[in-house]
Every structure is written in structure tokens, then in C-alpha cells.
Amino acid sequence: MGTYTLRRLLISIPVLFGILIISFMLTRLVPGHPCDWILTDKGTQEMCDRVIQAKGLDKPIPIQFGIYMKDVLRGDFGNSIRYNRPVIQILAERLPATLELNLTAFLIAVVIGIPIGIISAIRKNTPFDKVSMIGANLGVPTPVFWLSLIMMYVFAVLFRDTPFWLPPSGRVSAGVSSIPFYEVYGLTATAGSLRFFVFDFMSNFYIFNSMITLDYDVLRDTLNHLILPAVTMSIIPLAIIARLTRSSLLDELGFLYIVGARAKGLRRSKAITKHGFPNAMLPIVTIMGLQIGSLLSGTVLTETVFAFPGLGRMLYESIIAHDYPVVQMIIFVIAITFVITNIIVDCLYAVLDPRIRLE
Amino acid sequence: MKKQDPIQMNNIEADHLPHVKSGSRWRIAVQHLFQQRSSRSGLFLLSALFIIAIFAKQIAPYDPTKMLIWDEDVKRRTSPCIHLLGCPESEPQHLMGTDSLTRDYFSRIIYGTRISLFLGITTVSTAMFIGSLLGAIAGYSGGWWNLVIMQVMDVLLAFPVLLLTLVVIALLGPGLKNIFIAITVVQIPHFARITRASVLALRETEFVFASRALGGGYFHVLFNRILPNTLTPLIVKGTLGVASAIMDAAALSFLGFGPNQDALEWGAMIGFERNSIFHAPHLVVFPGIAIVIMVLAFNSLGDGLRDSLDPRLIYSDIRTRTAK
């Protein structure tokens, strides 16, 4: 297992390097002179020369790449042009929001999708199976941005003045603010230090932060705002997971070892959960890994529709505003997240399937 | 489930076999295709969509880009008015209402079929052409070619799809041409991978050795002997790829990176009418349903093709049928 994980990590080094190259190339391939987008139209020739000198843009490309790599490893992604502050601060603010949203959506998809698939497989051709599979087949081709708008209409407009009403935008209501745990507990850290970054990053997980500071009003408000975008994002992966769980489990149930397990006197439910399901898990785990990729894609759309202050919306706004250092950082971070997820999925695969581990 | 003697399981009796007429592999595949409900419905939907796209001019009751405010008594964002369903005859008929600029929405949706089909099919064919070529070279040549091409493909695959299209859009700027490039780039690695895998397997087969022994050159063997045999998985992936290309194009247009905010593209229409969701939801609902139908059509056809072209699946069909 250990050697397998190590090998898997080594294989991904070229890919990580490739991601680094692509994110490096991004700011170099942008049409026009770098001064045009760094200084906008207010820059003079003199300022431009200074910027080029300071950023090392006059050096040969391989050296520039070396500088970039060193900066990235130190966590220095430069300054945002639009906000004029370090990009890494923006990351500490926005990444927790995106992670909170995506993880919730993923959990909903798995926790509801797999049982639906299992029940459909066991009760094949019953009304439950038929209804859920029609639903799943319609869920797969639904564009997430459209679904977001429809859900927004249903829950924010149609259900207005009912207990089912949900806020259509934002992360917390106006006037509500989440007080960081380090301020509540009087922990100090100097701005710019790693300690401060970690504190800041952790405290921006609003659910986590409000739980440890026992601030239940903020917790309720955060969850209230999170439900709608998270459920919306979860529907498509949920449909895909449910459909695959059903077909994968049905495939397994056709095999003779299930008949054998039943023949030795095992109850049907036990034969399915103990013997059928673990084998059916393999393709499900693969698809779950792929779904994280599509969640990370969809986060740009969902966050934009729900005005959710996460990384995805930031990416969209930064592309529109030509804020390339931020675009560069977000693309780098999301790609890395996706690669890490894939590594975890592959290792899970090895846990589930001894054949892969022993290869 | 009927209990069976395990020894008998191996000798599948002739009348247990699915009824397949003899014929060429393609004929069997086509027959199998029509036997499946998913591919039948996919083909039906697709032919309907193609007919709508081709005869858009005849079907659409209005000019999709014309504002009707000067021509008839019509307000902005009117709800659908269908005479057959009891809408008063005095009002002009708009099957899907009118949009924010008093244009007939039904006509716009009809014309929208064209651009989605066009984008989906052209991007995927281009990506299939480039991708299979790269994959074939990587698989057949091996060595450095293989290493460099596949490493680049792996890096491209390491990005979530929409993110990679956004990288391209960030570099090239918005517009129809750039959406086309972005989606093509995203699709290429999938085709390259599939082709490479098939080529690797075919490279070691006897008919390829024979062709080389007869003096066939590099390109002759690759293009005339190997590539025709890699088509099956490519067709399946291509059909499914069109569905995701249409989705991606709609998403990019929705974000406003499309041709222009005003284009006859379903995603762009949803993006343009996004703020109407609170008072005129039909302007968002209809283009979305159109996207769902088109993606569903390609997905079902792709699933059907996969099942009918994959001999292993036909075989597993036999296995499960006899086991039950």
C-alpha cells in the first residue's frame, strides 16, 4: 500500500509541473504588453520600466520560470491588480467558502445518491426504481447554471413567506458577521505570518468557525445560505452516482457468487451489502472522483448565479477585469486540488481492490 | 432465479442466445442499435432537432432578431400566449412569450438549435481529428513522441473541464471563434488517450505485421490498417463528447464569453434573461429545456452506440440472460 501510494505520487510530479507551466504561461501569453494590464492606462514609460525591472520580466524565460516557481513554493502569488493586495490573502478568504460549498454538495450527492442506487437495484422495476431512474436520467443532462436559476425561483420566489423560503444570494445575511475564532479566544498573530494565514484560512470556514465560537446565529444563517447552492450543485452528481450505483450493483447481483452466498444461507440484504456492494463500489469510487472535477467546474457557474463569495465567482470576475495574477492563482489552486483528489481516489481504489495493490 | 447446473452454464444453448441475424459487424451494430430504447429515442430526438435546425426559417413564425414593438401591440416579457389553449384571439400568438426586447422567444429558441448543433459537432470533429492523430502517433511511434504527447495530454486532463476552457478564454478573450478553440482543446486529450490505447493493442497484431512485411510504410500502415480499426470507441466517445461540448458552450455563453450577449444561443439567452427569473421565469425555463433535450439526445445515442458497438457488452448480455 505504501509503495503504491509513493509510486502514484511520483507519477503525478510531471503533471504538477505541467500545471505550474500552464499557470506560468498564462500571464506571459496574454496579448499586449504586461505593462498594459499591470499599470492599466495610467502607467508612464518610466513606471513601466520600473515594473519590468522589479518583476524580472526582462530576464530570459527559463529564469523567469525559476523565479515564479520559487515564489509559488513560498506561497507568493503576487498582488491582485484590482484589489492591490496579496493574492494569497484573497485565497485565504475565498477558498474556504468554495470548499465548504463543494464538500457539502459532494456529501449530499453521496449520502443520498448511493442509497437511491442501492434501493433501485434491489427493487428493480418497481415504481421507486422507475421514478428515481427517470429523475436520474433527467438530472444528468441538466445545465447547472440553469438549475441554479430555477431553484432560486422556486425557493426564493414561489416559497416566499413560507417556512421553506431560502435566501437566493450571498453567504451570510447583511448585518451578520462571523467573528474569527482567534479574535474570540484572544490568539494573536502578526499579519503576513504563516500563523496568521492559517488562522485566517480556518476562520473563513464559517460553519467550523461559528461552531467553535458557539455562535449559533451565524451558524444558522450560514447553513441557510448554503443549502440552496449546495443542493443545486449536488443534483447532477447525485443523479450520476445513483444511476451508476444501480447499474454497477445490478451487474454484481447477476454473478454466481451472490447465488452462492444466498445458497449458504445468507439473508438477501446481507448478501448484497456484504458481498455485492463492496465489489460494486469500484466504478462508483471512480465516478465520485470525476464528479469532484465537475463540481469544481460547476462552482464557477453556481457561485456566479448565487452571488456566493467563493473562488469560482472570483475567477469569473477576475477574467472579466483582466486581473491575471488572481486568475493565475485560482487556476493553479483548483487544478492542484483536482490532482490531489485524483491521487486520493486512486489510493482508495487500491484499498478496495487488492489486485491493484499487489500489482 | 432458476437454479442451474454450473457445468451446463458453459454450454449456452442456441435458443438462449439473443436473436442476432448474421451479417457484417456494422450491420449487427446497427440492428443492435435499433433494438435499444435509449438509442431509438436518441435518434428520434436528434433527427427532430436536425429538422428543426435545417428548416428553422420555415418553422419560426417571426424573425428571431426583430423587435416587434413597432409592429404589433406587444409588451416586453409577455407570458406565452397560445390561441389553442384559450389565449384571446385579439392578442398576437407567441408560443413562448416575448423577451426583454419584445422579440418572439419561440423563434429565437428554434434558431438556437442551429448554433448548438453546429458548435457541438464541429468542435468534436476537429478535436477527434487532432486527438486521434496525436494519439495514433504517440501509440505507434512510442519513445519520445509517446512521452511528450501523452504528458501534455495528462496535464490538460488534470484541469477540470470548464476551468481549462476559461484559461483559453482568459488568454484569447470572448467570442464564438475562441469558444470553439477552447472546447476543442478540452476535448482533444480524451480522443488522444482512446486512440493511443487502441493503437497500442493493434500495433502487435498479425495483420499489422503482415502489412509491414509486405512493405507498407509508416503512414500507410497507420492510416490504412490501424486507424480504421480504432473507430468504434472514437464514435462512442465522439457522440458523448458532443453532449458535453454543447453543455460547455452553453456554460461559457451563459457567463458572457460567447459570441455576444444577444446571440441566438441558448446559454447566452439564459444569461441575457438571467435577471428576469423573478418576474418572467419562462424566459429562463424554455432555453434550459432546449439544452436538456439536445444533451439528452446525444447522451442516449452515445449510450446506445456504446452498448451496440461493444462486443463484450453483447456477450455480457448473453451471460446475464442465461444466468437468470
Describe this structure in words.
The complex is a heterodimer of chains A (about 350) and B (about 325). Helix content of chain A is about 75%, strand content about 0%. With about 350 residues, chain A is an all-alpha fold. In chain B, helix 5 (about 105-140) runs antiparallel to helix 6 and helix 12 runs antiparallel to helix 13 (about 280-310). Mean pLDDT of chain B is about 85; it is low at about 315-324. The longest helix of chain B is centred in the middle third of the chain and has 37 residues, at about 105-140.
- SS-derived structural category of chain A: mainly alpha
Radius of gyration of chain A: 24 Å
Percent of residues in beta strands of chain B: under 5%
> Can you tell me the residue ranges of chain B where pLDDT is under 50 for at least 5 consecutive residues?
314-324
The poorly predicted ranges of chain A are none
Oligomer: heterodimer
Number of strands of chain B: 0
Helix and strand sequence of chain B: HHHHHHHHHHHHHH
Greatest chain-chain interface? A-B, 52 and 49 residues
Total helical elements of chain A: 16
Strand content of chain A: under 5%
- What is the molecular shape of chain A? globular
Kindly report the average pLDDT value of chain B: 83
Largest sheet of chain B: none
Helical percentage of chain B: 55-70%
Question: Which percent range fits the helix content of chain A?
Answer: over 70%
- What structural class should be given to the helix and strand makeup of chain B? mainly alpha
Average pLDDT of chain A, rounded to a whole number, is: 86
End-to-end distance of chain B: 5 Å
How does the overall form of chain B come out from the CA principal axes? elongated
